[in-house]
Every structure is written in structure tokens, then in C-alpha cells.
Amino acid sequence: IFAWDIDYTRDIHPGDQFKVMFEETVNDLGQRVKTGKILAAQFKVGKETRSAFLFNGEYLNEKGESKRKLLLRTPLEFSRISSNFGLRRHPVLGYSKMHRGTDFAAPTGTPVKASGNGVITFLGAKGPSGNLIRIKHNATYSTAYAHLNGFKRGLRAGSKVTQGQIIGYVGTTGRSTGPHLHYEVLVNGQQVDAMNTKLPTGNPLSRSQLAQFKNFVNQAQTAWNKAASQNQLASR
Question: pTM of the predicted model, to two decimals?
């Protein structure tokens, strides 16, 4: 639900909080026999609170904007960012050079996912980039994944991929000092900072839909507040 907003590897710290509202089925004795869909969720990360509410089959934030972004914030599970977007001293060449991507350090073989739905426009070896995949997501956005150890079997240039689909595996091919993924987001053909670029969301709600949605949000907040009050009474 929050994969487009929160990097679970990097952003979560002790003391962060979350709460969830979900469907449940109970028997005649009032005992829960199964759970269903998550109806609402809230994640407090540091000083920021992220909310999600299920409306018409899609999770929206408190403003009625889709939680699903065009691209995932990060396309793999990683241990650390080894190099950010921007000017840096190149680890191989030894001089300062603009780094037009984000490097994620991860063990060789770590699965790499497609950041969004799209079509593979290149898959193969590409000089210093090593094994490289490029994906076109729409007329504006594309992504690139470099230094891969290998590609997911069956993929080729022209293959359609979906968001979150495994497309390859972390490696150290090409001009590289160790296993990592070099990841690029391009807007109109120009590389941008993948970690700080605001990504587009889905279509906005109509005025009537927004009124219905806000009513549901108020109901969820009321239920959460009631549950919090009951917990406080029970703990006294």
C-alpha cells in the first residue's frame, strides 16, 4: 500500500507507528474466523503521517489522490545507497563526474523489479553499463537498470512488463567496483534524481466521488479514535 511513498529498507525506524482497519468475519460466538481486505491504513514515519483508504478498488491518500504512482520509489531490496544522483568522484576513473543515477548496493543475484508498467526498449550488454535494461513507461517517463548479473529468462526488447515484475538480478558487470544496481529515471529523455522526483499518480476523483470518499475517511477516523479511546480505558 505504501510502497510508492515509503522505502521500507531505509525510512523505517524504532518508534514509527502504523494502524490498520480491515474486514473480518466472525462466528455466532463473536470469534474472528477470517480477515478480508485492508480498508484503511496509516503509517507514521518520523514526523510524517501517510494514510491510505480503499475506495472503488483503489487506495487513495487523505486528499483522494491515488497511492499507486507511475513508478516504484526503489526497484529492489537493498542494503544501502552507495552513490546518490549528482556530482561525485568516479570510483574507477578517479575524477569528478556527474552521476546521473542512483546506485543501490546489494548482493549479487538480488532480484531487480520493473519500476512501472512499460515496454523494454533495450536488453543486452552496453559498454561501461554492463548488462543493461531500458524500459519506456509512457511518452514522458523511462527507466534504466545497469550492471546486472543477468536478465529474467524470456525477456527481450519489445517485451511488456508490469510494475513489480522481476526483470533481472544485481551484478557487477561493466565498469563497476562491486555488486550494485545503477538505476536511472528519465523524464523526456533527461536523467533526474529518482529519490526526490515527484512521481505522477492516477486520475483525480470527480466532485461527487470526492464527497463520498471524504465521508468514508471521516468514518474511518471516527472508528480509529473510538478504538484508541477503548484501548486507553483498558490500559488503566
Answer: 0.68
